[in-house]
Amino acid sequence: MNIVSTNVYVGPSIYAHFPVIRHVLNLGGLEEWPTGRLGPEFVDPLLAHLPGLHDHGCSYREPGGFVRRLHEGDGTWLGHVMEHVAIELQNVAGSHVTFGRTRSIEGQPGHYNMVFQYKDKAVGREASELALKLLHSLLPPALRPSDAPPEDWNFADARDEFIRYAQSRALGPSTASLVEAAEKRHIPWLRLNNYSLVQFGHGRYQQRIQATTTGKTSNIAVELASDKEETNAILRDLGLPVPKQFIARSATQALRAAERIGYPVVLKPLAGNHGRGVSINLKTDDDVRVAFEKAREHGRSIVVEGFIEGFDHRLLVINGELVAAAKRVPGHVVGDGEHSIEELVAIVNSDPRRGVGHEKVLTRLEFDHQAERLLAKHGFDRNTVPAKDEVIYLRSTANLSTGGTAIDVTDTIHPDNREMAIRTIKAIGLDIGGVDFLTRD
User: Fold this and answer.
1) Is residue 296 a contact partner of residue 253, using CB atoms and an 8 Å limit?
2) Does one domain contain both 157 and 118?
3) pLDDT in tens, 214-263
4) For residues 171 and 177, what is the distance between their CA atoms, to the nearest angstrom?
5) Can you give the pTM of this predicted structure?
6) Residue 177's CB: how many other CB atoms inside 10 A?
7) Per DSSP, what are the bridge partners of residue 246?
């Protein structure tokens, strides 16, 4: 069995109203070997490798329908099996797809049109290639083609490599959320590069986004928002509550700034983001020296500002309206009186919603210098067994990108704080912006 030709449809086609891939397959001699003839020696390992196939409805339109097709009578032909395997592999990798259809081509014995849905065309094509390898590897030796995987080929390793590839191409959480919202509104969309540049709609009505930056976002506003010093000055001039702030380019300047502000203080890179290089609640000169070196790993200019105690909130403003507010909680584990901190971290990281970087909605917790320092500060280490319900923080900042979580508080935000967030974003000139707001309640 081999793929004769491939067509990728990025929009509506004669096969579906959504993106699909079409392969012309040549089963060759395998036309005489449907699954019923191949028997359980083929079917059972296939289902063991991909147990999710049990949920495929196929023509029966109910879970288990595809498995029935594999077993009943002569079974089903391998082109049809490859279709379902390509779909299931994409689901395993995080792309929710369901549609597939395989039909014989009239006048061409052994040839089939195999059509299946995809979210990312490169991932879809890789899925069908891996599906073909898996089916070839499960065939009896006498039926395997010359290009079949070697005897020592490991499907689990190939599957994991495919998942990593799919995740590396996946849209980030912010972009993916916008795309999902567009799909619910039946707005067509098109990914324009391998990153987060996405087009919604077509022709004169199209709109483009790059992550959370839109085609209407001012470049000047983006540059301004990226400059913590300028942003702080503008907001202070408007009477908005911001911490006292100085810029330091040496440890000596950082110490002098901390003395002028008064301890405790915060140090962070001027051009940093995602909480990288940030140290908070620094109470001594030694704390400042250590934090300065850490921040310098992410930029030459360091912000020194007063520490404001309170809960971290992110307020989202779009087109002059506050649409969401979230209370952000730093990455942490909760003791159960039995497991060590290291074991609790492993338990938290087993959550399928957690991944590396921005590949998933939540980020995995990590043991690094900051986590070790924070634990040591409270007399803990990774082998400590916390008491039941004791909260152990591994981060001092609440960024989701460093393992934090968020709690929706949109409906409880005070009107004054709502108006303050709107004024802040308008002052910077952004159409979409997030305000980090610290408050005790």
Assistant:
1) no
2) yes
3) 999 999 999 999 888 999 999 999 999 999 999 999 999 999 999 999 99
4) 9
5) 0.69
6) 13
7) 304
